[in-house]
Every structure is written in structure tokens, then in C-alpha cells.
Backbone:
């Protein structure tokens, strides 16, 4: 299978704080598959590290209040071009770019709300199968050909 995956889950230090979220269980599970690492924030040109981003309504803002919605959309579009023929996408949960189902609410207080990150939302519209790193059982089933 060809799998698009958040670069931070593979150990790339691309997160807003200059760290990664390397997931050894996930990396082991995906051994032998073609992996396409993606990071919309890196593609958008945000420096590493950079201010935290959160989604407030339909706007992506920095912790200092700057509207970076368009910039993140452009990075997500670049990533979308790279993963369009992937069989599966595995994204970092709660991310303003890649979060699936729950994202931070824009108050920078740690509160989660229902919603998707910018890139995850674009991928859903393209009907690409999405999981986050916490969905290991579903990922295993998908890798074994079960939908």
C-alpha cells in the first residue's frame, strides 16, 4: 500500500515546538509499505519552531492572534498534490493541520472541540481513507484489506 503519514509520526522534527511525535508501534506496523511523509505546516513555510496554531471557527490563528488561514491552506494544498494516489492517510491527532474529529478550540487553553484540521478536511472531501495514530486496530484491518 501507498500511505501518506504525518512526518512528525515518523520522527521528523517538524512540530511547532521543534519536536517530533515518533510512533514506533506505527512505524513497525507500516514496515514494507510505501510511506509519503507530509507536513502542511512545513509546506506552508512556517519556521521550526514557530508559534502554536489553533482553529477558531473557520480561521487558523497563532497564539499571538495572527490569522494564518491562507498560509496553512496553501501548505495543505501542496501536501494534497503529493498524497492524491495514496490508499490510506495516517495523521497526527488534534493537529490544526491533520487532526481528525477533534482539534484545539483556538483559546490555547488545551480545550478540544469537534472538528478537523485544515489538511484532514481537504482529504475527507477527496474521499481518502483517514486514520490518526491512535487508531492502530483500524489501521491493521485496513492494511489487511478490510474496509
Residues:
Amino acid at each position: 500500500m501507498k500511505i501518506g503519514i504525518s512526518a512528525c509520526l515518523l520522527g521528523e522534527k517538524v512540530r511547532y515546538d521543534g519536536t517530533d511525535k515518533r510512533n514506533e508501534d506505527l512505524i513497525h506496523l507500516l514496515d514494507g509499505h510505501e510511506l509519503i511523509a507530509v507536513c502542511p505546516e512545513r509546506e506552508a513555510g512556517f519556521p521550526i519552531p514557530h508559534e502554536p496554531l489553533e482553529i477558531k471557527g473557520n480561521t487558523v490563528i497563532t497564539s499571538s492572534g495572527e490569522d494564518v488561514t491562507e498560509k496553512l491552506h496553501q501548505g495543505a494544498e501542496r501536501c494534497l498534490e503529493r498524497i492524491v494516489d495514496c490508499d490510506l492517510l495516517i495523521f497526527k491527532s488534534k493537529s490544526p493541520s491533520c487532526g481528525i474529529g477533534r482539534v484545539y478550540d483556538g483559546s490555547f487553553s488545551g480545550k478540544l472541540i469537534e472538528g478537523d484540521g485544515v489538511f484532514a478536511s481537504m482529504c475527507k472531501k477527496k474521499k481518502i481513507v483517514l486514520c490518526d495514530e491512535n487508531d492502530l486496530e483500524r489501521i491493521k484491518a485496513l492494511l489487511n484489506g478490510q474496509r
Summary: The mean pLDDT is 96.
